[in-house]
Amino acid sequence: QVKLVESGGGSVQAGGSLRLSCAASRYRACRNDMSWYRQAPGKEREFVSSIDFDGSIRYADSVKGRFTISQDNAKNTVYLQMNSLKPEDTARYYCKTNRDSWCLYASIWGQGTQVTVSS
Questions:
Q1: HSE-CB of 78 using CA atoms within 13 angstroms
Q2: In what order do the strands lie in the sheet with 77-82?
Q3: d(C-alpha 26, C-alpha 84), whole Å
Q4: What DSSP string describes 12-54?
Q5: Buried b (16+ CB within 10 A) or exposed e, 69-86
Q6: pLDDT one-digit tens code per residue, 49-93
């Protein structure tokens, strides 16, 4: 089954930057959409950004202009460059894909990586 592993989280001060990575293993390129979500303590998981198989990109309004999603197909890796970080960006960030190893629709999540932004 597809496995997603996030990395790159950490603690930064407001205004700082982090680059998250999501590496996919046992992955087949079959019109996969890749997404980033985040979940803060006591809150529901929310959409952050996505990049579809056709290259279409979307962002949540709260991160537009500050976050940039990209992918390296050769490495089966998706990135989330986060600039001008704010304390409200503090959350655990999760990577998600919508296809399994057999290219069937599925919701496959990574274990997440913690981002903490201090004021």
A1: 29
A2: 3-7, 18-25, 77-82, 67-72
A3: 34
A4: EETT--EEEEEEEES---SS--EEEEEE-TTS--EEEEEE-TT
A5: bebeeeebbbbbebeebe
A6: 999 989 999 999 999 999 999 999 888 999 999 999 999 999 999
In angstroms, the CA 51 to CA 33 distance is 6
Residue type, 31: R
In this structure, the number of other CB atoms found within 10 A of the CB of residue 91 comes to 21
Tell me what pLDDT residue 90 has.
98
What is the b/e burial string over 94-104, where b = at least 16 CB atoms within 10 angstroms of the residue's CB?
A: bbbbbbbeeee
Q: What is the pLDDT of residues 92-107, one digit of tens each?
A: 999 999 998 888 999 9
- Looking up tokens 């929310």 gives 46
Per-residue model confidence as pLDDT tens digits over 8-34: 999 999 999 999 999 998 877 788 899
What is the rounded CA–CA span in Å between residue 88 and residue 54? 31
